[in-house]
Structure formats: structure tokens, C-alpha cells
Amino acid sequence: MSRNCFYIIISLIVLNSSLSAREAASHPHVFIVNRYCLVFDDNGLAGIRVNWQFDEYFSAIISADYDADNNGKIDPSENQKIKEEAFDNLKDYGYFTFIKIDNTAFEVRFVRDFSASLDKNILTYEFFIPCHVTAFSSFKEIRVAAYDPSYYTAVYFADKIPL
Hints:
Oligomer: single chain
Structural class: alpha+beta
Largest sheet: 5 strands, mixed
Order of helices and strands: HEEHHEEEEEE
Distance between the termini: 64 Å
Strand content: 35-45%
Helix content: 25-40%
Number of strands: 8
Radius of gyration: 21 Å
Shape: elongated
Low-confidence stretches: 4-24
């Protein structure tokens, strides 16, 4: 076997193993049950209130890291720390919410009214996505999808009352 052929084979093995490692790393690590509440005002759609209920493992991690007084509740100072350290980075992923209004993408750049809570050791995030759509006499099509483009988080719509 020539030296060049040997290097090609080794390179292919290294490339294949690095690709396999990336594929293995792209399975979900966090699971979210998602609910949306459409909020209307006098002008039309004001935005979407989002409720995420996390799996017990992620809930346990956040609780261990942020429930400083171990009281099983998220206090205001703990809530602020969770927002800053475990939520705000989701801006880079559109908060896992993708909206199209009449087939035009609406980029979710910010949210407001974030709160985290624990109930029976299950973590819930709630927040509001401002998305103003003025009501007209004609219909507007609004599509909302929930997913993590990195595939590290699996986002499912709730079986009961998803919207």
C-alpha cells in the first residue's frame, strides 16, 4: 500500500468518526411541553404567551443550580438569575418559536414578562412574545412553529389544551 493511500484511509476514518460524533451529539437533551395563548387587544393580536413545562431531569438541574434556599420554589432573585443565565441565551434561537404572518417571517428578537416556577419538582417557564398584527376585514394567516434548530431540545405541543 502506498504512503498516500494510507494517509487517505486514515483521513477518511478520522472524518467518519468526527461526523458520527456530531450526529450522536445532536439528539435531544431537554424535553419541553409547549403551550401557546394568543393574546388580543383592541387592535388585534398583541402577542403570544408561552408556557414551557420541562422534563424532570432538566427541572432537577435548574432547581439544584438556582433554588439557592432549597425551598422548592423560585423566588424573585432566583428567577432573575435563571432568566439571565439559563434563558436569555435562547434569543439566539428565536426562543424556539418561529412565526410567519401571511408567509412572511416574523423574527422573535425579544420577549418580556419571564417567570420560572417549580411545582412538584417540575420547572415551568412563562414569557410573552410581542407580535402585533392589526385586525383587518380580510383574513391574515399566522403560522407558529416550536422547535430547537440545534436538536438539543425536543419541543412538543401539549396533548391537552396546546393553544
